């Protein structure tokens, strides 16, 4: 299992299971399947409303808690110092855990709220109940605000990243500041057919005898970007993790870079109405 080392020394598995829109009855089996087939990284959030099912699956999996990297996130309505502390306690209770491995601010909701929320994350981190902290859906100017006003630099920034939204500038900025970039929607979410029908990816997948999703995931791994493909289908969960027995050559990496068009699937970070 390949890991990346965060700026505080924490080891984070480079491939994990995403669980957005995974219903509790589905996500329980999905997490069990993932953990039984090599995954050691599970990503959730308060707003997903599946933390309890995920916590139960972790407990029932038989895998040691210390061997599993668990992420959850602070939702928009809970931002602010005191509210964030309470929201974290609720997430921890729902998960049935003593700590999480990573706690993130889910969205940017204004500079002042970001600072107050992040200071709550610093308090949680210092208590040992989150082994790492960071942000999600943050652009460069959002991260600069945190770095200028807070004590502990973020360890992770989780953002939409895939073959048509490659985030090279944001990735370079994060690397310069020792912040790990993490990709959600790596298989293009609702636009997955665009991924599956891309001629470049189809050609490369045939070259390596892999699926197009496996090529898309491996391309992120080659860039040292943490990736959390989401699925509740056992076969796809297993397939998405089967990306460590090959490497893309430089020419293929260059060809995939040409696919980039900067198109987002999800809303722009500064324009969130929820």
Could you give the distance between the termini?
37 Å
Number of helices: 11
CATH architecture: Alpha-Beta Barrel
Helix percent band: 40-55%
CATH class: Alpha Beta
Strand order of the largest sheet: 3-4-5-6-7-8-9-10
State the domain count: 1
The H-and-E topology, N to C, reads as: EEEHEHEHEHEHEHEHHHEHH
In the CATH hierarchy, the third-tier topology is known as TIM Barrel
Please, could you describe this protein's structure?
By secondary structure, the protein is an alpha/beta fold. It has a single domain, classed as Alpha-Beta Barrel (TIM Barrel), CATH 3.20.20.100. The chain has eleven helices and ten strands. An eight-stranded parallel beta sheet has the order 3-4-5-6-7-8-9-10. It has a two-stranded antiparallel ribbon with strand order 1-2. A hairpin with a 5-residue loop joins strand 1 and strand 2. The protein is globular, with a radius of gyration of 18 Å. The termini are far apart. 47% of the residues are buried.
List the helices and strands and how they pair.
Elements: E1 3-5, E2 11-13, E3 17-18, H1 24-36, E4 41-43, H2 51-61, E5 69-74, H3 81-95, E6 102-105, H4 111-127, E7 133-136, H5 140-149, E8 156-160, H6 168-176, E9 180-184, H7 192-196, H8 199-208, H9 212-222, E10 226-227, H10 234-241, H11 250-257
Parallel strand pairs: 3-4, 4-5, 5-6, 6-7, 7-8, 8-9, 9-10
Antiparallel strand pairs: 1-2
Helix pairs in contact: 1-2, 2-3, 3-4, 4-5, 8-9
């Amino acid at each position: 299992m390949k890991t990346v080392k965060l700026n505080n020394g924490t080891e984070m598995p480079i491939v994990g299971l995403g669980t957005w829109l995974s219903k509790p009855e589905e996500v329980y089996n999905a997490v069990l399947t993932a953990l039984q087939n090599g995954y050691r990284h599970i990503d959730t959030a308060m707003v997903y409303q599946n933390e309890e099912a995920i916590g139960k699956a972790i407990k029932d999996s038989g895998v040691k808690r210390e061997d599993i990297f668990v992420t959850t996130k602070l939702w928009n309505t809970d931002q602010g110092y005191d509210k964030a502390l309470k929201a974290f306690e609720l997430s921890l209770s729902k998960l049935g855990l003593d700590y999480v491995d990573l706690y993130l601010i889910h969205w940017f909701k204004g500079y002042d709220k970001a600072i107050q929320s992040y200071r709550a994350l610093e308090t949680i981190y210092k208590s040992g109940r989150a082994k790492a902290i960071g942000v999600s859906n943050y652009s460069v100017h959002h991260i600069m605000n945190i770095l200028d006003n807070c004590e502990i630099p973020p360890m992770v920034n989780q953002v939409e990243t895939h073959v048509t939204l490659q985030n090279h500038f944001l990735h370079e900025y994060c690397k310069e500041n020792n912040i790990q970039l993490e990709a959600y929607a790596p298989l293009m979410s609702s636009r997955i057919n665009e991924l599956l029908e891309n001629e470049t990816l189809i050609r490369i997948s045939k070259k390596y005898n892999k699926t197009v999703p496996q090529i898309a995931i491996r391309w992120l791994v080659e860039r040292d970007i943490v990736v959390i493909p989401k699925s509740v289908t056992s076969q796809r969960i297993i397939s998405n993790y089967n990306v460590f027995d090959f490497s893309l050559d430089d020419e293929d990496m260059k060809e995939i870079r040409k696919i980039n068009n900067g198109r987002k699937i999800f809303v722009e970070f500064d324009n969130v109405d929820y």
